[in-house]
Amino acid sequence: MEAKRNKIVVITGPTATGKTALAIECARRLGGEILSADSMQIYRYMDIGTAKPTEEERRQVKHHMLDIIDPNETFNAARYAQMASTIASELTAAGRLPIVVGGTGLYIDAFLGGLIEAPAADKEFRDRHRLLAERHGSYYIYSLLEKKDPEAAERIHPRDRVRIIRALEVLEYTGKSIVKHQRGHGFAGFPTYLALKIGLSMDREDLFKTINERVEVMNEKGLVQETKNLIHKGYNPSSASMQAFCYRHIIDHIDDKIGLEEALRRLKRDTRKYAKRQITWFKRDGSIRWFKPEDRTEIFEMVETFLTSVHDKSS
Question: If one looks up domain 204-276 in CATH, what number appears?
Answer without folding.
Answer: 1.10.287.890
